[in-house]
Amino acid sequence: MRQSGFNAVKTFDGPSGLDQARKIRPGLIVLDLLLPGMDGKDVCRAIKSNPLTQSTPILMLTAKTEEMDRVIGFELGADDYVTKPFSPRELVLRVKAILRRKEALQEEQKIIQIGDLLIDLERHQVSIKKSPVRLTSTEFKLLFELASRRGRIQTRENLLNKVWGYTYEGYARTVDTHVRRLREKLGLSGDWIETVRGVGYRFRDEEE
């Protein structure tokens, strides 16, 4: 990671990793699920439940390849998922893609309001009837991509490229998992997001 220009801090167990995340507040966390002392899933859950660290992107790293493990990781708030064995180049590309998404959001100065839903890009906040909705950084980016192009169909492949920064065959289910979680968090406002069978998703236009 240092050869790619990143200043990496290593920890070797769950509790110390969580402690460093709270103290250092890193730009991104590469989190192995198989950790001694505290399971990686519990570390992820703790990071995403703490207001000081909840916006920190997390890239999960694990030997587990079953789809359910990926789903659980995304439900806990992970932004991406890499399975072992992996190439260092792939890991670096995934990290850079996540950081580019984060930087792009920070540079935006826009507010989108649709019905009771308000998306404040400058503050990285979402609210419904002025009540805050807690989203992961990836969920926030996904919502923005859909809402800012409301009325237009977004394919799963396009969303993978725009939100995750890559397009790999077999990863379309990643989009479905995040859309499902996003709808759940938005409650009735989640109905704005429509499924276009066999294609992808669309954020319904206000005039419809």
Tell me about this structure.
The structure is a single chain. With 208 residues, the chain is α+β, with helices and mostly antiparallel strands. It folds into 2 domains: 1-107, Rossmann fold (3-Layer(aba) Sandwich), CATH 3.40.50.2300; 109-208, Orthogonal Bundle (Arc Repressor Mutant, subunit A), CATH 1.10.10. The chain is built from 7 helices and 10 strands. The protein has helices at 14-24, 40-49, 67-75, 88-107, 137-147, 156-164, 172-186, and strands spanning 29-32, 58-62, 80-83, 111-114, 117-120, 125-128, 131-133, 153-155, 193-196, 200-203. A 4-stranded antiparallel sheet has the order 4-5-6-7, with helices on one face. The chain has a 3-stranded parallel sheet with strand order 1-2-3, sandwiched between helices. Strand 4 (111-114) and strand 5 form a beta hairpin. The longest helix is centred in the middle third of the chain and has 20 residues, at 88-107. It is globular, with a radius of gyration of 17 Å. The mean pLDDT is 84.
Question: In the CATH scheme, what's the topology name of the largest domain?
Answer: Rossmann fold
Q: For this structure, what is the CATH homologous superfamily of the largest domain? A: Response regulator
Distance between the termini: 49 Å
How much strand content do the residues show?
15-25%
Order of helices and strands: HEHEHEHEEEEHEHHEE
Structural class: alpha+beta
Radius of gyration: 17 Å
Taken from the alpha-carbon principal axes, the silhouette is globular
The main β sheet shows up as:
4 strands, antiparallel
Mean pLDDT: 84
Helix percent band: 40-55%
Question: How many β-strand stretches?
Answer: 10
